[in-house]
Here is the input.
Amino acid sequence: MFANNEVRIAPLGRQYSLRESVTESLRTAIIAGTIKEGALYSAPVLAAAFGVSATPVREAMMDLTREGLVETIKNKGFRITSMSDRELDEITEIRLLLEPPVIADLAGTIPPSGITELRSMADAIVKAARDGDLAEFLAADRGFHAKLLGFAGNGQLVELATSLRARTRMYGLKSLSESNKLADSAQEHHELLDLIESGEADAARELMRRHIGHARGVWATGENEESR
Here is the structure.
C-alpha cells in the first residue's frame, strides 16, 4: 500500500536532463528525510508527484539503487534503505580516515586555476544554502568535494568518498536551512580553500575533520554538537 506514504518532493531543477533532475530531487529527499526510510514507493506514485511519466522515475531509482539509497522490491516498487546510527558512525569513521589526510597533503599544491574553479563551486554552495535550495546545496557540495579530492590524483578515492557522502543521511539540513544556519556551515568551504591555498596543512586537516563531523552531528540532526 502506498496511500499512507505521502510524497513531498522539491521541484525539479532546470539545469539537468529530466532523468538527472528526478535523480537529484529524489536523492535530496532521501538524504534530507523528506521521503521515509523503510517506506515502499511505486514509480507511478512518485511520477505523479513530479508530474512526469514513470520512466524517468524508474531510471532514477535504478541510479539510486546503485548508490545504496534504494532497493528494488520485485513487482512492488522501491524501498528507501534504512541507515542506523551505527552505520552513520561507521561511514563517518571511514571518511575521517580518508579525507583529512588527503586534504593536508593537498595544502599548497593546487594550482591557482584550480583554486579559482573551487572558489566558484564554493560560492554555489553558499548561494544554495542562503536560498534554501537543498537539492542544489547537496549537488554543489558533492561536486566541490569530488573536485577537491580529485587533485590527489586517485580516482578510486574520489569514487569511494563520493559514495560515502551520498549515503549519509542529513535530516537536520531542512531545519538548519529554515533557521538560516546552513549558510554558516557552507562558508567553511571557503575557509578550507584559504588554508589549502596558504599551505596550512595541519589547520586544513582539522577543519576537514570538523566539516565531516557536521555531517554526523549538526547536519544529521539539526542539533549542535554540544547539545548532543
